[in-house]
């Protein structure tokens, strides 16, 4: 029995955590300290906070991976969820390892917008597109994150003559197309943008740079 107890403890999953970007939500965990960790299988359950019964996640039942996609299971984004993971090796099962409480609406990270830049002689036209959620409309198109949150675009310009690192905020608002005027011909400019959520005071990472010479 003692050997089994040691084995149970040594395979028990560690650091069970939700990770979520644009409401794409996965559960991650780390293996226990058993030497035979690659032979361990994992079993995932989830529930809404307040429910008494745990649901099995069938696609993550007896898997060797350390990640499980729970996007579909957490689609009621205002609800708080829990998940838990246990491990099995050679017919011995560990105890369950519990995640922290996770509320998708509050805790998902917002990704940066897509940015395209078109230049004319002294101006730049910047087109912005908010990231999409994984959830679909009836017709099949993905629902943008702006449906779930009051989001603002923040657009920054980098004048490469002055300083690579210095970003000037040139626009904050909801317009998807903006024009930056009175720029200097022959100068290289880069545009980066991010999404900002005033209500939760969250910002996304910066988009990738779009650079152009006027």
TrEMBL record:
Q: Which gene encodes it?
A: Il22ra2
Q: Give UniProt keywords alphabetically.
A: Disulfide bond, Receptor, Repeat, Secreted, Signal
Q: Which family does it belong to?
A: Belongs to the type II cytokine receptor family.
Question: Any idea what job this protein has?
Answer: Receptor for IL22. Binds to IL22, prevents interaction with the functional IL-22R complex and blocks the activity of IL22 (in vitro). May play an important role as an IL22 antagonist in the regulation of inflammatory responses.
Chain ranges of the Fibronectin type-III domain: 9-96
Q: What is this protein called?
A: Interleukin-22 receptor subunit alpha-2
- Organism per entry: Elachura formosa
GO cellular component entries? extracellular region; plasma membrane
Q: Which residues form the signal peptide?
A: none
Q: Does the keyword Signal apply?
A: yes
Q: Which GO terms describe its molecular function?
A: cytokine receptor activity
InterPro entries xref list? FN3_dom, FN3_sf, Ig-like_fold, Interferon/interleukin_rcp_dom, Type-II_Cytokine-TF_Rcpt
Q: Which residues form the Interferon/interleukin receptor domain?
A: 108-212
């Amino acid at each position: 029995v003692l050997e089994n107890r040691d084995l149970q403890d040594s395979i028990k999953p560690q650091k069970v955590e939700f990770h979520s970007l644009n409401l794409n939500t996965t559960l991650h965990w780390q293996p226990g300290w058993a030497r035979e960790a690659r032979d361990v299988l994992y079993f995932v359950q989830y529930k809404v906070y307040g429910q008494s019964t745990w649901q099995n996640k069938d696609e993550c039942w007896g898997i060797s991976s350390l990640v499980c996609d729970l996007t579909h299971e957490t689609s009621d984004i205002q609800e708080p969820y829990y998940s838990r993971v246990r491990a099995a090796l050679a017919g011995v099962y560990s105890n369950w390892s519990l995640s922290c409480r996770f509320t998708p609406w509050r805790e998902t990270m917002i990704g940066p917008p897509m940015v395209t830049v078109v230049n004319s002689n002294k101006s730049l036209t910047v087109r912005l597109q908010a990231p999409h959620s994984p959830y679909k409309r009836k017709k099949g198109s993905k629902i943008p994150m702006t449906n779930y949150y009051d989001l603002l675009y923040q657009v920054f310009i980098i004048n490469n003559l002055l300083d690579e690192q210095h970003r000037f905020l040139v626009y904050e608002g909801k317009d998807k197309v903006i024009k930056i005027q009175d720029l200097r011909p022959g100068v290289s400019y880069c545009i980066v943008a991010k999404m900002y959520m005033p209500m939760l005071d969250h910002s996304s990472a910066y988009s990738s740079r779009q650079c152009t010479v006027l």
